[in-house]
Design brief:
Structural class: mainly alpha
Number of helices: 10
Distance between the termini: 87 Å
Oligomer: single chain
Strand content: under 5%
Largest sheet: 2 strands, parallel
Order of helices and strands: HHHHHEHHEHHH
Helix content: 55-70%
Shape: globular
Number of domains: 1
């Protein structure tokens, strides 16, 4: 009586196929994943850095330019982000030009949402910060902006 060959299972079939197909082994795992996952993670990390202003503005600007356009909010701008930037300005850690450039970068992003129920206060503050020629010296309005964000 001869033994029947064992029926191959799917896992062993896949292993044999990979052994015969060297091109399947050439791609690193990071490239096998869907590109949108990596891009979404990069977008979120870049937007988080922008909101926290934890990297130089020139570096943030380059990173933002490298992202594809999207109108789907990947991060949320909160009043606390604005207040933190204003406090850094008040402590002379940031210049008025830094704040204006940051506000312009944030204001131009379609992929940032605003904190729910505070959209108008955030939009007004961003406009004021990004347009110093219209709103006057930041030094003169910083306290009023902080008060408006606390409401």
């Amino acid at each position: 009586m001869s033994k029947a060959a064992p029926e191959p299972n799917r896992a062993s079939w896949a292993k044999r196929r990979l052994r015969r197909s060297p091109e399947a082994l050439r791609l690193p795992l990071s490239e096998v994943r869907a590109p949108m996952i990596g891009e979404a993670m990069d977008r979120r990390a870049t937007l988080s850095s922008l909101l926290a202003l934890d990297r130089p503005l020139s570096e943030l600007n380059q990173a933002l330019d490298a992202l594809d356009w999207s109108d789907q909010p990947a991060e949320t701008l909160r009043r606390t982000h604005l207040a933190a930037v204003l406090r850094r300005y008040a402590s002379a850690e940031l210049s008025a030009e830094d704040v204006a450039q940051w506000a312009s970068l944030v204001e131009s992003r379609e992929d940032l949402g605003f904190e729910p129920r505070h959209e108008e206060a955030i939009a007004d503050a961003l406009f004021d910060l990004g347009n110093p020629d219209l709103q006057g010296d930041l030094h003169d309005i910083v306290d009023d902006l902080l008060d408006a964000l606390d409401d």
